[in-house]
Amino acid sequence: MRTGTDRVKRGMAEMQKGGVIMDVVNAEQAKIAEEAGAVAVMALERVPSDIRAAGGVARMADPRIIEEVINAVSIPVMAKARIGHIVEARVLEAMGVDYIDESEVLTPADEEYHLLKSDYTVPFVCGCRDLGEAARRIGEGASMLRTKGEPGTGNIVEAVRHIRKVNAQVRKVVSMNEDELMTEAKLLGAPYEILLEIKRLGRLPVVNFAAGGVATPADAALMMQLGSDGVFVGSGIFKSENPAKFARAIVEATTHYQDYKLIAELSKNLGTPMKGIEISSLAPEARMQERGW
Amino acid sequence: MTKIGVLALQGAVREHIQSLEACGVEAVAIKRTEQLDEVDGLILPGGESTTMRRLIDKYDFLNPLKEFVRTGKPMFGTCAGLILLAKNIVGYSEPHLGVMDVTVERNSFGRQVDSFEADLAIKDVAESFTAVFIRAPHIVEAGENVEVLSKHNGRIVAAREGQFLGCSFHPELTDDHRLTAYFVGMVEEAKQKQLA
Predict the structure, then answer these.
(1) CA gap A251, A219 in Å, rounded
(2) In chain A, positions 209-268, which contact chain B (CB-CB < 8 Å)?
(3) Helix, strand or coil, per DSSP, at residue A144
(4) Of A4, A5, A17, the CB nearest to B11
(5) For B132, which of A8, A18, A98 is closest by C-beta distance?
(6) First-to-last C-alpha distance (Å) of chain B
(7) pLDDT tens for each residue of B3-61
(8) Which of B11, B103, B150, B181 maximizes the CB count within 10 A of its CB?
(9) pTM of the entire predicted model
(10) Is B107 close to A37, i.e. CB distance below 8 A?
């Protein structure tokens, strides 16, 4: 019997495909998410837009919140650790969290190194903006990726940029000759072996979800159409007027992302979505996507 | 040509489709109920059973799926799919499809950190088969007409009852297509019978 193998860790993310993972801050929200059909929940102390508003250092959530969420639902529970924070990650693993997000939404603990995720039994998801970043994270042992987007803004533009970039770079690698891959690895800052694997498979070796700015059912469907395997929704749901209805609408739009009549129906009377932020109004140091190396 | 559907509401659909194609049959991702008429057998894939059930209800799949069962066409449930098939689920008063005479327990091996790979002997399929268990259920009790195909540490992890095949693990996550081929065999046999 072998635990923590790549197949087991990556396989867990494969089971989430086509689904929505929702940020929750307590048991009650977790139940609403599960009831709405979320494939997993991310247990947090604050959603990204509140982290943004609060300022200061954002850390791993209070374990009591995570425990409360674990006890409330039967779907998998994810939680965030700071980039490079070995102990937060080990604590989350010890608590039985099903997936850890080494996340730029929290204030990084290490400005040079990420976690060696292959060392852990629990699987990890990491953010990426391009293939170099994606491949470095896979090289460190991430079993799932997500676009970074710009969390807590309710603005989809960055997530779109990131998924288009990653997918364009994957297509390029797949179409390249093998003798060109070493130079491409150098240019991308990507491990050569991971590029070889991408070429052999014709796609990324792990699941890639969309995250960072999904605020409406149409946003979720857009990300699916652009080739995401599923969607993370952070601040969007529980910052909307009717979270339960909103959550169901996002789930359905993700499943049937090409059924435009349905998306029109789902989008009716959802109330005001979260107020968005124009990215150019964010100072460079306020952009969470810049975190990660 | 034999055509087998994979219920495509959520979960590991692509992997099952590839596995079916590797077995030489046509595979169809089933997103709408009317597509069920065109296939000879159906796979209920792994994923989140709670999520799949929500979507089954939302898109009125429950009765069409039960109707599919009544035609005698085979169904294969893997992991979450097995939970959908089971007549009884430990801790729940109502089953989902409730068609296969087994009682299953969800997440019975623990949380994700306890997920594992193990080599199993599967009756009529393989002496050694690498099985990937992810937050897997297991069969606590099997009815008298259920044939147990495999056990892991004393727990039933694969079984067949007539037209139903169910397993706790994910055969679609490896390149070993022997269990899928066994199901294809069930489908082809059922198809021959209907033609005869």
Answers:
(1) 12
(2) 251-252, 255-256
(3) strand
(4) A17
(5) A8
(6) 16
(7) 999 999 999 999 999 999 999 999 999 999 999 999 999 999 999 988 899 889 988 99
(8) B11
(9) 0.94
(10) no
> What separation in angstroms does the CA of B67 have from each of A220, B77, B177?
33, 17, 28
- Cα separation values, A168 from A135, A199, A200, A209, B163, Å: 14, 13, 16, 16, 44
Token pair for A207:
């699941």
Beta strand A40-43 with B164-167: parallel, antiparallel or unpaired?
Answer: unpaired
pLDDT single digits (tens) A140-183: 999 999 999 998 888 999 999 999 999 999 999 999 999 999 99
8 A C-beta contact, residue A107 and residue A59:
yes
CB contacts, 8 Å: A121 with chain B: 113
Cross-chain residue pair B12–A34, CB shorter than 8 Å = no
CB atoms within 10 A of CB B95: 17
CA distances from B115 to A274, B118, B121, B167, B168 (A): 37, 10, 19, 15, 12
Query: B80 and B47 in contact (C-beta within 8 Å)?
Result: yes
